[in-house]
């Protein structure tokens, strides 16, 4: 696979998550795939910045604190620590953990608002409308279900509001944004979501309400031109992508030029419509890319919900199958173009079947056998046969998919290629049967060659898997006593010399019943 031309810097962002509840599998997902892309690009030698974190303002969070009877700052600190702990546990190597309650962020948001206000693009007016707290958005009648509720938050009940607020003019920017999407085919991926965004922009846009009166919401950034109001939570939250890299101070530009937002399909409108128009209004360049993913649903395709009892708790999965059991399922089993199912049982099947039977067992079998019969060392190879060369080529090609720049929708296929390579290795070993070859003095050298070929292929496989399941891959490479791979990483054959002493061999993915 030819290496794609790629930039030397990349700034990946995840959404910042509402703290009105504990982190769930959806939050874990976007932050884990962001981490996978970071590790992939870092392996290519790209300088990386990854931000993730929490969205602390708005009505929903304010009410969640009140429901627990907690003082607001204590509540935010508690939830923020909870999110951070889960991401740390999941091995998400973020460079910046966002808290929108940070003073510098709030000042920058106010600065952005003031500059847009000074341009005359913000107007004050009365508005009557339907509001969904779950989305923290005003809804049009056509957005609602037949019984008048938000399809995304049917149990939350929309509210009728009749308020005076500040609004950002959107319509003057619509054509320009559509043109930008036309001119930049990679602005939104995959194509289905690019089309969805174009659809959203096909009709005149209403002004965007960017404030909340303090009589209703106090948790937010004060409007710089009217302190009776706080900033609408989405306006404040979206600005994190700039404030994380220190905007408006010097030095943010180089990161900003390479920014890619990873988002779930539920928040395409704020990221594809509100955010670009906010940036245009503030005279700032648009993000380079919006990478959109579909959702995880419970088994049978039903939405995960506490009342159905099909919510997958990341911590529970980690207890059962380790962090890598979870990372594996999320990386390998999301479909590029539609919602995908998840349950503890589906994760368990993938863990036992793919990680255990196909990848982990092969390493144990081959490394233990070499340990026992070849003085605890990687055997020395003799002459290679056509079958050996075929396997080496297959594995080299499969792992090369991770030595190439990966975009979000491509992750599952690149991981699947690794599973296919593991299948080929298992077939090879079953066919070559080194355990039989060893029994006979004349075929013992051939036995050593087969083991060598397999162990060296496994080394390449685990080097690649450092991007997906880093802890297990490092453990495997330590068992193989493999030399540290160079950065930029390029998979190469024969980097595990015959005679290398093997480390202690333990089960990588112990079976879970
Ligand atoms: N706070 C806003 C985002 C502001 S970004 C400037 C928000 N927060 S959220 O807590 O609701 O998180 C939404 C994001 O969580 C989704 O876009 C997606 O990345 C992730 N997921 C939430 N549920 C999900 C699934 N069921 N499946 C996959 N990811 C989903 O919206």
Q: What structural keywords apply?
A:
513 residues; alpha/beta; Rossmann fold; Isoleucyl-tRNA Synthetase, Domain 1; 2 domains; 6-stranded parallel β-sheet; 15 strands
Please explain how this structure is put together.
By secondary structure, the chain is an alpha/beta fold. The protein folds into 2 domains: about 10-295, Rossmann fold (3-Layer(aba) Sandwich); about 315-480, Isoleucyl-tRNA Synthetase, Domain 1 (Orthogonal Bundle), CATH 1.10.730. It is built from 17 helices and 15 strands. The protein has helices at about 25-45, 60-65, 70-90, 105-120, 170-185, 190-200, 235-240, 240-245, 250-255, 270-280, 315-330, 345-375, 385-400, 410-430, 435-440, 445-465, 470-480; strands at about 10-20, 45-55, 95-100, 120-130, 135-140, 160-170, 190, 210, 210-215, 220-225, 225-230, 260-265, 290-295, 295, 340. The strands form 4 sheets. It has a 6-stranded parallel β-sheet, with helices on both faces. Strands 5-4-6-8 form a 4-stranded antiparallel β-sheet. Strand 14, helix 11 (about 315-330) and strand 15 form a beta-alpha-beta unit. Helix 1 crosses helix 11, helix 12 runs antiparallel to helix 16 and helix 13 runs parallel beside helix 16. The longest helix is centred in the last third of the chain and has 30 residues, at about 345-375. The chain starts with 8 loop residues before the first strand and ends in a 34-residue tail after the last helix. Bound molecules: 5'-O-[(L-methionyl)-sulphamoyl]adenosine. 5'-O-[(L-methionyl)-sulphamoyl]adenosine binds next to strand 1, helix 1, helix 7 and strand 12.
């Amino acid at each position: 696979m030819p290496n794609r031309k790629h930039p030397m810097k990349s700034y990946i962002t995840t959404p910042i998550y509402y703290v009105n509840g504990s982190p769930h599998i959806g939050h874990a997902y976007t932050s884990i795939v962001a981490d996978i892309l970071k590790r992939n690009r870092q392996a290519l030698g790209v300088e990386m910045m990854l931000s993730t974190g929490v969205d602390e303002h708005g009505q929903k969070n304010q009410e969640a604190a009140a429901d627990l009877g907690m003082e607001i700052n204590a509540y935010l600190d508690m939830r923020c620590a909870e999110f951070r702990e889960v991401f740390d546990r999941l091995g998400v190597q973020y460079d910046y953990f966002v808290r929108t309650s940070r003073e510098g962020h709030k000042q920058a948001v106010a600065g952005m608002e003031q500059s847009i206000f000074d341009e005359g693009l913000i107007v004050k007016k009365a508005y009557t409308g339907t509001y969904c707290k779950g989305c923290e958005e005003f809804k049009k009648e056509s957005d609602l279900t037949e019984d008048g509720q938000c399809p995304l938050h049917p149990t939350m009940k929309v509210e009728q509001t009749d308020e005076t607020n500040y609004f950002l003019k959107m319509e003057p920017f619509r054509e320009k944004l559509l043109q930008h999407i036309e001119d930049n085919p990679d602005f939104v991926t995959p194509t289905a979501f690019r089309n969805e965004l174009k659809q959203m922009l096909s009709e005149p846009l209403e002004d965007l309400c960017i404030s909340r009166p303090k009589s209703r919401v106090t948790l937010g950034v004060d409007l710089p031109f009217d302190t009776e109001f706080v900033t609408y939570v989405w306006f404040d939250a979206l600005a994190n992508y700039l404030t994380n890299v220190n905007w408006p101070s010097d030095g943010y530009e180089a990161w900003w030029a390479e920014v890619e937002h990873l988002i779930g399909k539920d928040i395409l409108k704020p990221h594809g419509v509100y955010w670009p128009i906010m940036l245009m209004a503030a005279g700032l360049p648009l993000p380079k890319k919006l990478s959109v993913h579909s959702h995880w649903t419970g088994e049978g395709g039903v939405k995960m919900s506490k009342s159905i009892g099909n919510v997958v708790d990341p911590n529970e999965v980690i207890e059962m199958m380790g962090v890598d059991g979870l990372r594996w399922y999320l990386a390998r089993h999301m479909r590029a173009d539609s919602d995908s199912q998840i349950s503890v049982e589906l994760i368990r099947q993938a863990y036992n079947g793919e990680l255990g039977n196909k990848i982990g067992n092969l390493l144990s079998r081959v490394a233990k056998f070499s340990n026992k019969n070849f003085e605890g060392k990687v055997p020395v190879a003799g002459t290679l046969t056509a079958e050996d060369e075929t396997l080496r080529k297959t594995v080299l090609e499969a792992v090369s998919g991770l030595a190439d720049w990966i975009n979000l929708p491509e992750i599952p296929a690149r991981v699947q290629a690794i599973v296919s390579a593991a299948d080929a290795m298992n077939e090879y070993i079953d066919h070559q049967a080194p355990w039989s070859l060893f029994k006979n003095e004349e075929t013992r050298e051939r036995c050593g060659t087969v083991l060598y070929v397999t162990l060296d292929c496994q080394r390449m496989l685990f080097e690649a898997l450092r991007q997906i399941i880093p802890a297990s891959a490092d453990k495997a490479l330590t068992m193989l006593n493999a030399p540290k791979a160079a950065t930029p990483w390029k998979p190469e054959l024969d980097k595990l010399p015959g005679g290398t002493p093997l480390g202690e061999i333990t089960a990588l993915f112990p079976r879970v019943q």
